[in-house]
Amino acid sequence: MVKTRESRHINIKGNTEHGLNNGVLNARINSSVLSLYDGQRLQAPMIDGEVGEWSAVDAKVSKALQTVADKGGNISLLMGTNISPSSQRAIDNFKAKYGEDVVNVVSYDPVSLYGIRKANEMTFGKSMIPSYDFSKARTIVSFDADFMNNWLLHTEYVSQYAKNRKPTGDWMSKHFHYETSLSLTGSNADVRVPLKASDEGRALVALHNEIASKTGGSSVSVNTDNLPMNAIKMTADELASNKGRSLVISGSNDPDNQAVVNAINTLLGNYGNTISTTKEIFVSQGNDSDVVALVNDMQQGKVDVLLIGSTINPAYSLPNSDAFREGLSKVGTSVSFALWQDETATLCNVISPDDHYLESWNDFYPATGHYALAQPTIGKLYNTRQYQESILAWTGDTTEYREFIKGVWQEYMAGLGAEGLLFDDFWYNAVRNGSVDVQLPEMVDVPELNMNAVAASARNAAKVKSVEGFEVITYANTGIGDGAHSTNPWLQEMPDPISKVTWDNYIAMNPADAESMGFNMHLGQELPASTATVTVNGVSETLPVVPQPGQKKGTIGIALGYGRGANEENIGKAAYRTKQYGGYDMDDDGKKIPIGTNAYRFVDVVNGYMNYFVGGATIE
User: Lowest-pLDDT range, 320-334, 402-416, 434-448?
Assistant: First the structure.
């Protein structure tokens, strides 16, 4: 819900009467009102670096698309997760226009949870993410899943989790949390266990074996050296005493780790109780292996036209961003829907700027049975156009997007949940409430586990990962997230809820490690942090060192999302360091200095998925 004063947006708050999250918002949603008024947003389309007209954009892009379609070439759409039924219909129409064999759609999430979908495909035969109900779980076990901050539908999970965290209630859930860096969720746990990311697979297998010994399941051989076995046994006891009333989750992007989690939840009888596979959630659809394949095709000159969604910035956030840039230079026609001339848009032939979401009509299908609508709360400030209208225009469809959405809803939903009402009444109620819940038939919700796939994954997860030097853990923090909002000064100014640091990312290090290396232990206005250079796999970044209680010894944590605008892109003033009395700080080459450094450079690609920890780091 958006509060306006004299037609100007001043606040965004949650809808307590409708929707999935019971009115819970995060900082990024609340502060996004500021980005609407960003003077460095693109104010018109651009062709080859110059401001253009929409008619010229449509002519250039339509001609390129048709030429490629006629020769049977490759048109690729690289988009962020799409949970909009109407957006999907527009893309389907686009594919029908230019050819199903010609158009390739790839989903990309900068902070990926592809491992969950892949594990469910391996173990249950379907690439999906189930819904979780924390309010039903008496024992909650998380392995590095920050479900109160960034993991999946975290705004929904916060309200579910809070329901049974009251000592005065009939019962109170018990929360075990295993993680490397101290997170917002971990700080709320009853039992928090520091654990290296490289040991998570073995710890999950050890937990599986402890539960299997109590429930009659099969065990997998695993080396338990250096694992917190006392904590794991205590966790297994709690889980076994709450079969069907517990929940085990993992934030790992390793499909093998996630497959072991599926096996644990199956042993505990949690499917059909705290986990539902018939009620899916549709966020985090990114497919890492498809993204890797697309970049390879671009480098080989196999992509003729590339359309890039407005919610992603792969030239900044891809671990292999240099390869992406090289490949992009070999694409015949590249089009970005970005709202700013960001790291990716500046490399494209055409920028077709999307409207801000507060200027837009849109619809969403985040979870099975739940539909939502967004409507504009202000007229367009600039000469921009919703990316869906651009896609439709390039198919020859000039329908206003509001009417297009209405048509999609009329076709698919007129008779759902609206018995006795005309569609116009149904549409009016949907727009007024902002969402519609559709009752679906009850279905059997206990999927059959592929034991062969689980056994193979468990053997992989159980392998000892030999890691020398420090482990580097990269994560999305509460304010900046994946970096899409890193130019928002409200978010930069917001203290991190754990470290209280503002306007920077940093090296979070165990205090004992920091002291042994001679770094400053007491930080304040007159006591600046020491700086250190982290080097791993030939990549080096220099950052302040913050002694962080709760950080696992031998590891460091660095937040993603910083270091934007390394080539002085026009992405917002808050992306760069400023002097005390105005003006920008400049480096030795006279270039503006970004806020923080880009930790995506430390992300690794392993067996086709993004891996957010890497070993062998040196710190000096």
Answer: 434-448
DSSP 274: T
Q: CA–CA distance from 215 to each of 219, 471, 493 (Å)?
A: 11, 35, 50
DSSP bridge pairs for 555: 471
- Predicted confidence (pLDDT) per residue in 552-606, tens digit: 999 999 999 999 998 888 888 888 888 888 888 988 888 998 999 999 999 999 8
Paired with 617 in beta bridges are 470
* SS3 (DSSP) at 527: strand
Instruction: Round to whole Å and give the CA distance between 144 and 367.
Output: 23
CA distance 63 to 78: 20
Cβ neighbours of residue 489 closer than 8 Å, sequence gap 6 or more: 34, 573, 574
Q: Which two tokens stand for residue 208?
A: 């599986």
How far, in Å, are 268, 302, 416, 429 from residue 373 at the CA level? 37, 38, 16, 11
pLDDT tens by residue, 113-151: 999 999 999 999 999 999 999 999 999 999 999 999 989
Query: Average pLDDT for residues 110-114, to the nearest whole number?
Result: 95
- Helix axes 229-240 and 200-215, enclosed angle (nearest 10): 40
DSSP annotation string for 278-298: EEEE------HHHHHHHHHHH
- Can you tell me the distance from the alpha carbon of 160 to that of 124, in angstroms, rounded to the nearest whole number? 26
* Confidence category of residue 420, pLDDT binned at 50, 70, 90: very low
Res 465: pLDDT: 77
Q: Distance between CA atoms of 243 and 259, rounded to whole angstroms?
A: 19
Quick one: which of 399, 435, 396 has its CA closest to 417? Answer: 435
Q: 293: burial class by Cβ within 10 Å (0-12, 13-18, 19+)?
A: middle
H-helix segments, 494-612:
511-516
Q: Which of 247, 199, 248, 246 is closest to 224 using CA atoms?
A: 199
Banded model confidence at residue 306, pLDDT cuts 50, 70, 90: very high
Selection from 311, 289, 310, 293 nearest residue 302 by Cα: 293
Rounded to 5 degrees, what angle do the CA atoms 458, 464, 466 make? 145
Q: Is the pLDDT of residue 217 over 70?
A: yes
